[in-house]
Amino acid sequence: MAQQHLEPTEPLSGHVGTVTGDALAGYLRSQATEFLRALRQHRESGGTAAGAEDPADAARALRRSVRRISASLHTFRPLLDTDWSESLRPELAWLSGTLGMEHAYESRLERLLLALHRLSGAVFPVQGTVPTAVPTAQPAPAPAPVPVPDRGNLTVGAAKAGALLDRQLTLARTRAHSTALQALGSSRFHAVADNIAVLASEVPLVKSATATDLHPLAAAAQERLDDAAAALPLVTAGHPYNAEALIHGLSPDPSPHPQDAPWHQVRLLLRLHRYAREVLTPAVDVRLLTASQCLDRHRDASEAAAAAASAARTPRIAPATAYALGVLHADQRHEVEAARFAFQQCWQKQTVST
Amino acid sequence: MAQQHLEPTEPLSGHVGTVTGDALAGYLRSQATEFLRALRQHRESGGTAAGAEDPADAARALRRSVRRISASLHTFRPLLDTDWSESLRPELAWLSGTLGMEHAYESRLERLLLALHRLSGAVFPVQGTVPTAVPTAQPAPAPAPVPVPDRGNLTVGAAKAGALLDRQLTLARTRAHSTALQALGSSRFHAVADNIAVLASEVPLVKSATATDLHPLAAAAQERLDDAAAALPLVTAGHPYNAEALIHGLSPDPSPHPQDAPWHQVRLLLRLHRYAREVLTPAVDVRLLTASQCLDRHRDASEAAAAAASAARTPRIAPATAYALGVLHADQRHEVEAARFAFQQCWQKQTVST
């Protein structure tokens, strides 16, 4: 697991030796094995927390390995059997998307309820301190599942907004849970799992793969990332309180935040780059991980802001509820801006030092 | 007028020669003369824009001189006849407060309508560009009167919120205008004006004043400022996106922003220091002016946020209106945070270089 062996940054120093398709095969085999292990674990837990292992951990591990296999199929495409990889990739995307929804709704609700508590100046009952936005370029810590705080000391508006979001996002999460369980029992899923089981022993490399250097393909992935990041409005993002993220906060545009899309795209390209790098070296680049976390935070805040705006469009809500949702929306849009600032700070260091 | 002769910063270098009560007398005489000139100008314009001079300019000039006379009476109290200054100071405070209200409501409305347009992603019809928060430590430029933008391209919620704020703040402003006109015609005002007319020729210094150095009293004013500024949470303020200003955004506390009070207090102490400095040297310290403008912006945003919150408590408003007011409130609270950051950046430079 990448996050377990954090080491001092060790930039990938050019072509130190040649890494070929054999390394790719090894990486894919280990990810496939990881997938099968997580799947077994998930089945043993029965999809509920009754088993010895947390099914959420198993689902997370499943998604982890699926993302990595999918990314490798993309980045190192020329080294792999085309028919096989072209048929597997959309299936992996479907699986990753389906398995991720429940967790996404859960953490979105947590984020919004914590924000409501912070905005109410309420003392958070569990941790004893009010969780605030992270002050500097440090990314937010990985979101650990937190118990939903009680609503004892919220205003009526904040409490009602919290109840409304709770209702809407819990419903969405429950549906996502059913969909994921259904997916895991489907013949479509069994076909994917069979495919990955084969991959655990036999990687369908093309003939030339064992003599092909992986570096140019990995470098191309990095180049796509660098180009996309360079096109981001990083100068603006580097000026604190530039107020850009909220510019369309009250826009009549039904899709109010097209400005987020390039950042989401860089988030995906950064992930592809990180996974390609994993194939080449076991060393974790902490700055890449930090930059990734900034963009995760950006995505989470962006979606939480959209959920608050969407809840505010519920018919027949009280004005106090709508007001609280407006404050909450703006707060999360500022989190979006804060995440961009944090990414800019991190990325700037990155490009200077490499 | 201080803002007209901006010069490179020239820090007050210790006790260069002795400045005594004579300088104070000269300063008070010139401020009193300025007051009388502005008063004449205001009367000639008849309180309406029909005259050759803008009555708003005249009112501003009146407030300027009243603030300076009042501040000097406070800072250099031991050099002035006690009975006289103790009786005049509350009258000056009353006058300054009464005369300032109309302008305050006017600029608050402008600020909020501009923000609503920015939040709607609307192109501002007059200046052609969207006014955004100032990116770095630069303070916002002095608010020039801007025409109220039209509401053609706002969402329903933003348009309704704008109309509600327009109605409420225009009413308050009209009342403040009447109150100010009434005050200027009152016998209470005439007594103040007579007092200031005497001051223009005859400053009631105590006997020892012409032999007393003003520096210790001015230094005491600076010390009060420095102490109060040092007690501000400047470390937090210096971390961009610390999310402090919105912490009580949904607080059940009826007075939701006690955290602003120390900043407002520093704003007043900074003004006292600046005016005391004016008595001693004609050189304008640009950094002090910048710091002052940051705290003006802090105060303006704080009051605009409160006005948005207050408008949201209007009975029977639509949820969409309340939502827009919530977004607007949070936006202005972030302006509060941005102003604190800008002040911190400016103040840090200040204390390092002096």
Shape of chain A: globular
First-residue to last-residue Cα separation of chain A? 25 Å
Helices and strands of chain A, in order, run as HHHHHHHHHH
User: Count the strands of chain A?
Assistant: 0
**Count of discrete domains of chain A:** 1
Write the CATH architecture name of chain A: Alpha solenoid
CATH top level of chain A is Mainly Alpha
- Largest interface: pair, residues per side: A-B, 52 and 51 residues
Bin the strand percentage of chain A.
under 5%
Explain what this protein looks like in three dimensions.
- 2 copies of one chain form a homodimer.
- With 354 residues, chain A is mainly α.
- The first copy, chain A, has a single domain (20-135, 154-197, 205-353), classed as CHAD domain, CATH 1.40.20.10.
- The first copy, chain A, has 10 helices and no strands.
- In chain A, helix 3 packs across helix 5, helix 3 (82-119) packs across helix 10 and helix 6 packs antiparallel against helix 8 (261-280).
- Chain A starts with 20 loop residues before the first helix and ends with a helix.
Concise synopsis of the structure shown:
By secondary structure, chain A is an all-alpha fold. Chain A contains ten helices and no strands.
